[in-house]
C-alpha cells in the first residue's frame, strides 16, 4: 500500500503565493526600471556635455534671480591661482582627498550634532549647475546622484572652474569675472591673495556678506590657502 506522502510527492509543484506576488511586482516595476535607466543616462549625458563639450550657459538660480553685473565665462587658466586655493580653503579643504563626499567631515558634523551641512565643492557644483536652491529631499537625492558622476567625468580643476563661474558672490553677482569687477574693479587673473580670500568669504551667504579684505574670516581663508599649497592639498587642481 502506497504512502500518502509518496502520492503527494508525485503531484506537480504549485507556485507559492509569495513567489507569485513577487513575479507580479517585478512585472509592474519593469516600466519604472526602464524609466530610471533612461533618466540616469540623461543625467550622465548632461554631465559629459558640461564637462567636456560646453560651458554651462546659465543656471536655474541665475535665471530666477537675475543678473546685476554682466557675466563672462573665465577659464581656470585665466583665474589667479590663489583664487582657486582660497575657495578650496574656505569651502572644502579636503577637496583633493575625497571622491565627492567628505565622509570624515560628515561624521564630524553628525558627532557634534551640528545643523550646518558638510557639502563639498562637487556637491555645490552639482546643485548650482543642474538643480535648484533650497533644502528638499528630491533635490538632495538628485545631488547625491550627480556628485559621483561629476567626480568620475570631470577633473578637479574643471569642477573648480565651473563652480567659480556659476557661484553667487553678491545679489545678482554670478561668476568670478563679475565678482572681481563688482567688488574690486579688476579681472580674475589680477586678484590678490587678500581679494581672493575676501571673495571666498562671501560664498556661504552672498546676499548678506560683504567682500572685506581685512575681515577675520578673510584673513583665516588667506592663511588656509597658503597652508593647502604647502601641504599638497592643492595639488589636484594646480596647473602643471
UniProtKB/TrEMBL annotation:
It catalyses: [GlcNAc-(1->4)-Mur2Ac(oyl-L-Ala-gamma-D-Glu-L-Lys-D-Ala-D-Ala)](n)-di-trans,octa-cis-undecaprenyl diphosphate + beta-D-GlcNAc-(1->4)-Mur2Ac(oyl-L-Ala-gamma-D-Glu-L-Lys-D-Ala-D-Ala)-di-trans,octa-cis-undecaprenyl diphosphate = [GlcNAc-(1->4)-Mur2Ac(oyl-L-Ala-gamma-D-Glu-L-Lys-D-Ala-D-Ala)](n+1)-di-trans,octa-cis-undecaprenyl diphosphate + di-trans,octa-cis-undecaprenyl diphosphate + H(+). It is found in: Cell inner membrane. SUPFAM superfamilies: Lysozyme-like. Keywords: Cell inner membrane, Cell membrane, Cell shape, Cell wall biogenesis/degradation, Glycosyltransferase, Membrane, Peptidoglycan synthesis, Transferase, Transmembrane, Transmembrane helix. Belongs to the glycosyltransferase 51 family. The keyword Transmembrane helix applies. Signal peptide: none annotated. It comes from the Bacteria. It is a single-pass membrane protein. Peptidoglycan polymerase that catalyzes glycan chain elongation from lipid-linked precursors. Residues 69-219 form the Glycosyl transferase family domain. The keyword Cell membrane applies. Pathway: Cell wall biogenesis; peptidoglycan biosynthesis. Its EC number is 2.4.99.28. This is Biosynthetic peptidoglycan transglycosylase. The chain crosses the membrane at residues 34-54.
Amino acid at each position: 500500500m502506497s504512502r500518502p506522502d509518496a502520492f503527494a510527492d508525485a503531484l506537480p509543484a504549485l507556485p507559492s503565493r509569495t513567489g507569485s506576488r513577487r513575479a507580479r511586482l517585478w512585472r509592474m516595476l519593469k516600466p519604472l526600471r526602464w524609466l530610471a535607466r533612461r533618466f540616469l543616462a540623461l543625467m550622465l549625458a548632461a554631465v559629459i556635455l558640461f564637462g567636456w563639450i560646453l560651458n554651462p550657459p546659465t543656471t536655474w538660480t541665475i535665471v530666477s534671480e537675475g543678473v546685476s553685473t554682466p557675466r563672462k565665462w573665465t577659464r581656470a587658466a585665466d583665474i589667479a591661482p590663489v583664487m582657486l586655493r582660497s575657495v578650496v580653503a574656505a569651502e572644502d579643504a579636503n577637496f583633493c582627498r575625497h571622491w565627492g563626499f567628505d565622509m570624515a567631515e560628515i561624521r564630524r558634523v553628525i558627532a557634534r550634532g551640528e545643523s550646518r551641512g558638510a557639502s563639498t565643492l562637487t556637491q555645490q557644483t552639482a546643485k548650482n549647475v543642474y538643480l535648484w536652491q533650497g533644502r528638499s529631499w528630491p533635490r538632495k537625492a538628485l545631488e547625491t546622484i550627480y556628485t559621483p558622476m561629476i567626480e568620475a567625468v570631470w577633473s578637479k580643476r574643471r569642477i573648480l572652474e565651473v563652480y567659480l563661474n556659476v557661484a553667487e558672490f553678491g545679489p545678482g553677482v554670478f561668476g568670478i569675472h563679475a565678482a572681481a569687477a563688482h567688488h574690486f574693479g579688476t579681472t580674475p587673473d589680477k586678484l590678490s591673495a587678500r581679494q581672493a580670500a575676501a571673495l571666498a568669504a562671501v560664498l556661504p551667504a552672498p546676499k548678506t556678506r560683504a567682500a572685506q579684505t581685512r575681515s577675520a574670516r578673510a584673513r583665516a581663508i588667506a592663511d588656509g590657502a597658503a597652508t593647502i599649497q604647502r601641504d599638497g592639498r592643492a595639488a589636484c587642481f594646480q596647473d602643471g
